[in-house]
Amino acid sequence: MRVLISGASVAGPVLAYWLARRGFDVTVVERAPELRKTGGHAVDLFRPAMDISEKMEVLPQVMARATGTTRMIFNRRGSRRPVDLDYIKLQEIISNRHVEIMRDDLSQIYYDAGRDDVEYLFGDEITAISDDGLVTFAKASTRSYDIVVGADGLHSGVRRLVFGPDAGHTRFLGGYLSVLSVPKSLARAGVATNFIDANRMAMVYTADHLDDARAVFIFRPPAPLEYHHRDDVRQRQFLRDTFADQDPTVDRWLGELDNGRSFYFDSITQLGLTSWSRGRVTLVGDAGYCPGPAVGGSTSLAVLGAYVLAGELQGAQGDYASAFESYERVMMDPVVRSRAFARTVAKGLIPSSGLGVRGLMGVARAISVLPASLLGAAANLNKKGVRLYDTMSAPEYPMPVR
Question: pTM for this one?
């Protein structure tokens, strides 16, 4: 069967790897001229994604690219005493099998794992998909495919073409996330430095293998912002207006906004689709069920979804309608639980009052002081909370032979 995947970030390369291993003829089309190096933020791989990475034989490469952050320093306006959080302990509370890695590094690792068995079309995009599988591209000639998969993120072009402009049933979770590449000298090795007050937080960190640092800005405005998701001039101005008076250190980070380095900005938005397949087209990862950037473990969910989709397509032996039905049935529970968790995190990630900020600082201080065994036991009492992803598991599918 011929399969076309739109998007070469995380879900796309993982799906392409597993499909190619199972004998499918796979093409991946990516709008960017090459594998994206957007200076994205660090992402978390939880137990199911770690297990799948191990099956792909890329876990050593993943671990080698871990960010290496061991401490988080929280600075609060009006307080002279920052809170020094043991980040390793925090990670152990969240998951027994977990790694933090830069999104660009993870994308490269998954791409390299399957690139020799997959056709990649960079610098192109899908412009039309017919019911019989005929696909029109912006540049390449028209081709016919048995299956088309949208793995092209929250602003999925495939979803828009097939499901309509408002088919995502988007739910704004109240905040915005931005990531800016800044000089490495602005960060400390192994330390994520935070400045937090009501409705806004700025942070900078780096990793040993990076030649830069990443400044991350998360904020909650009083009303949704009006802008186009590709209008980065206006997005940069939002950051200046929101963070200008927070702290002189943050001012230095903002001073890098016009340095020409990579820049990312998006709303923390959740998709509410209850079905992400139509005809011979289906969606995977953020394109179909994004729980919310930075709040819902969307990267691990995307890896799990890609693995499940490939396994179900193999099991259905070419019956894509049956495979899509099984894929959605397997993924629905993880998706629904991830969405609920993301909504909770979005409310507490950036406190809306000074009292809330002090409460968050108190929690950070307690994590550093209390024994890890006690904190881990408390976390295990709530499987819908921080341990959510450790309760998920990747189904067992027959392992294909190379």
Answer: 0.93
